[in-house]
Amino acid sequence: MSYGVYGSGRLLEKCCAYLKDCGFTDACCITDRVEDVELSRSFPGFESCNLSEAASFDAVILVPENAWISVAVRRLKAAGVTSMCYLPAYYAEEGREIGDESFIWPDLSLPRLEYLEYHVSWHCNLKCRGCTHFSNIIEGERFGDIDAFVRDMQRLQELFWGIFKIRLMGGEPLLNPKLPEFVAVSREAFPDADIRVVSNALLLREDMEDLLDTMGACGVGFDVSMYPPTKAAIGRVDGICRKKGVKLFVTPEVREFRAGMDPEGRQEPGEVYAACPARHCAFLGDGVISTCAMPQLIDIYNGCFGQNIPVVAEDIIDLYEPGLTGEELLRRLHSPMDICRFCTQKQRSFPWEPAPRTTAEAGDWWA
Ligand code: SF4
Ligand code: SF4
């Protein structure tokens, strides 16, 4: 059996060492140091090697950084490769052993989804004024439903061979005692994904062993937003993550929020959508998915302030719609929604501050 190995960095080294140990002497490393290839190429690495060679191997093993996998798969498919597997990026981590079961063989007839968000908890401990997910004004507690999540991840597996990035968020996901289950289910369903728990981290404790062990074992990291209260706690959070072997990604300090809603809905949806950074932030609800979170969350805003921003049925897609394919779902997720007319390109900045339901105002979200 001959393998062509496309990849880069530490993961490529580990993969080649493993193949050598297994006696696969026919394995041929045909791409190396993807990151060093001239940046003028749109997708470094894959144009510089002889792609026509790829189809001559019995199989191709992909070991580039996660960000390049979708591109690599497309290019290799176009080059006539029909048998291809990948090694998930977290195998580059120190101490993570590669075994035969580590190699994942995607169903190449399916597309890959680039990004997915999910609310593990809809409410939040911090309650920032103008929270884009309305977590400061939601009434009471609301948690993601693990049973629905399991079903929906299975459904997404039928539609997509992988997902580049999954963000388990809210609200504050640490409020949900079932967070470890959400982490494990996500990893089980999508071994290729860069999975992050998005948190303000204030509630993280060292004795959350189930969570920290599950995140470490699954190669899942924290995306921490550095709000002023988080800044004061980040040393403690960093210490816990280091001790438990959990990756920690921290944003620059957040001192300002932005508001960009047009409550009158006077914008042209296609125009605001085209300029919107959230336009590829697919948001999963129970059994449904939308281009961004807005159509699934606006009820919270409407209910709190007696507003009536409408949601048309087409903006929220039924994941179980008969005949729905991954390609068709991608097409719809990459299209403007009616509710985009309530967003503006013009944004208003204001200083970060807490504002729970009792002190929040409808205008907090207006541009
Ligand atoms: S920390 Fe603030 S911005 Fe983040 S989810 Fe909570 S309320 Fe929203
Ligand atoms: S509703 Fe449309 S314009 Fe507004 S955040 Fe979502 S994708 Fe962007």
Q: What does the model show?
A:
The chain has 367 residues and is α/β, with parallel strands linked by helices. The chain has two domains: 100 residues; 254 residues, TIM Barrel (Alpha-Beta Barrel). It is built from ten helices and 14 strands. The strands form three sheets. The chain has an eight-stranded mixed β-sheet with strand order 9-8-7-6-5-11-12-13, sandwiched between helices. α4 runs parallel beside α5. The longest helix has 17 residues. About 5% of the residues have low confidence. One iron/sulfur cluster (SF4) binds next to α8.
What shape does the CA trace take? globular
The top level CATH class name of the largest domain: Alpha Beta
Q: What is the CATH topology assignment of the largest domain?
A: TIM Barrel
- Largest sheet at a glance? 8 strands, mixed
Proper CATH architecture of the largest domain: Alpha-Beta Barrel
Total number of beta strands: 14
Distance from N terminus to C terminus (CA atoms, Å) equals 60 Å
Helix-strand topology string: EHEHEHEEHEHEHEHEEHEEHEHE
Order of strands across the widest beta sheet? 9-8-7-6-5-11-12-13
| Tally of discrete structural domains | 2
What is the count of DSSP helices, taking H or I runs of 4+ residues? 10
